[in-house]
Structures are given as C-alpha cells and as structure tokens.
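dumping this here before i forget
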Amino acid sequence: MSKTLIIGASGQIGKMTTQKLIAKEQEVVALVRDKEKLSDITSDKLDIIEGDLEQDFSHAFKGCDKVIFAAGSGGSTGTDKTVLIDLWGACKAADYAKKADVSQFVMISSIGADDPAQGSDDMKPYLVAKHMADEHLINSGLNYTILRPGGLQDEEAKGGFQTAKPESREKMVITREDVADALVFSAGNTDLNNKIFELFNGELPLEQALA
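structure:
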C-alpha cells in the first residue's frame, strides 16, 4: 500500500499537508521532533514517528514509497540551523530515501534557490542551503519534484496558481495552505517527476499551473 513520509509534519505547511492527505484516505507517516505537536490529529491512517534531523532519522523511511520534505529551520534561527536543517537535513533525507528505494521525493525549496547570488545579504545563506539541497536531490538518482514557492502568507488558500514569476515583487507570494495543496497534488503524480516549479498565487488551477 502507498504510504507517504512527511518530514517536518509539525510545521505549518507540513501539518496542513498531513491533514489533507489523511482526508484523502492516504497512509501518512509524520516525522516530528515531538509527538505532542500533532496530538490534535487522530486517524488510523496516521503513524507519528519522532526523530531529529540533526541526528539519524533513517528509521522513518521504513515502508514509505513517497517522501515530502517540508522541514525548515525557521526565520528566527541562525545560519547554523539553516545549514543543519535546510541543507544537511535535506541531503540526508535524500540519501535515506535512495536507500529505501522510494518512488518519489517532493521538496519544498524557495524562489531564488536557482541563483543565490542574486539574493539579499540576509537571504543568501538560506538560498545557498536550498540550492545545494536541491542539487543534491537532483543528482541523487531519485524521482524528484521541487517546488520553489514565493513569499509565504498565512491567509486562507486562494486556490489559484501560476509558475511564471510575477513582474512585481508584491505578487511573488503564495499562501501556505496553497503550498500544502500543491504538495498533495505533486505526491504520487508521475507526470511531475524530475521537474522544478516556481510557485505563486495566480489564476490557474493546479492541474493547469503544473502541467
């Protein structure tokens, strides 16, 4: 039976993705540092596993055929955690996924990860980490789908998308819930294997935006 591992399942996007997959009656393994952060979700489709991305978390991949990497160090942490979580944690996840022979790895990256040199001084360490993690995944031999969302917003999902970069920076945004919907749509979608998409709110349904 198909089973999806969500790495970073207690984060905002990860938790919404977990809930949406369960609502679709899909089997989910949620990897978190603290099980209590998902104590409000109860389902026989959900298996919660504790693990630390700075340590060995290869045990979480057992029985999973798809992986969604939704973890992040967060904006309030320093460069050290950016390296350990967004770069090293993501690279280890790809390595574990390869050994577990998963069929697809879906990664949340970021706009600007394709060319970190163009980012602001404050953002460059984060963008370099995302760039290197993306490159590691691309070169891993895994089937991958990389989503590079714009600035994340906490509003309700708008349900409209585009992959073409808007002309104004103010429109280079997307809600976290829309990113979660894109992750759910991407996981198991073989038409999206080995593709990279920048993702913003727009006017198209996901099926057209990611065609």
